[in-house]
């Protein structure tokens, strides 16, 4: 696969830095880093972003998550590897990523379940984290950014 153009995040001055700061800000509310990696992987699966699925799956592995958990992110409802808090974050991720798919984009039951596990500050950070990965996905998918060596260079964890 060949990119249509260089990544907008790399070619438009200030975009990479701004997006990175937004992502970093979302990680200041005390949510486990692996939860961010899980929601980034799930949103990226939904959006078909190979760069981000590759990157965040590798981050999960590097953080010590078992392969079984990483391999079943797309089927988290049926897999036994996820905590209730992770499940709530993944459900929120799916709702926020698929806003146009239903009349009530983020149903109260999804929000309320997330609110059982996360404080208001953490909920805000989750929404920012989800919005940020969706923005990255759109930049990458629209311009057909390929995965592979780039991801290895970025996070330093080669595929096995």
Task: Report on this structure.
- With 160 residues, the chain is an all-alpha fold.
- The protein has one domain: Up-down Bundle (AhpD-like), CATH 1.20.1290.10.
- The chain has helices at 8-11, 15-26, 33-47, 50-62, 67-71, 84-97, 108-117, 120-142, 149-155.
- Helix 2 runs antiparallel to helix 8, helix 6 (84-97) packs antiparallel against helix 7 and helix 6 (84-97) packs across helix 8 (120-142).
- The two termini are 21 Å apart.
Radius of gyration: 15 Å
Q: Return the CATH architecture.
A: Up-down Bundle
In whole angstroms, the N-to-C terminal distance is: 21 Å
Structural class: mainly alpha
Please give the domain count: 1
GO molecular function: peroxiredoxin activity
Pfam families: CMD (PF02627)
InterPro entries: AhpD-like, AhpD_core, CMD-like
Protein name: Alkyl hydroperoxide reductase AhpD
């Amino acid at each position: 696969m060949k990119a249509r153009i260089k990544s907008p995040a790399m070619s438009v001055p200030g975009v990479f830095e701004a997006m990175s700061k937004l992502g970093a800000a979302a990680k200041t509310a005390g949510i486990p880093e692996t939860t961010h990696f899980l929601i980034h992987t799930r949103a990226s699966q939904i959006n078909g972003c190979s760069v981000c699925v590759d990157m965040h799956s590798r981050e999960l592995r590097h953080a010590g998550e078992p392969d079984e958990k990483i391999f079943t992110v797309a089927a988290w409802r049926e897999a036994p590897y996820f905590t209730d808090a992770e499940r709530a974050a993944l459900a929120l991720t799916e709702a926020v990523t698929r806003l146009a798919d239903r009349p009530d984009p983020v149903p109260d039951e999804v929000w309320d379940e997330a609110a059982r596990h996360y404080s208001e500050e953490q909920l805000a950070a989750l929404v920012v984290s989800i919005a940020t990965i969706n923005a990255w996905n759109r930049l990458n998918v629209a311009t057909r950014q390929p995965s592979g060596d780039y991801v290895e260079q970025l996070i330093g964890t080669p595929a096995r």
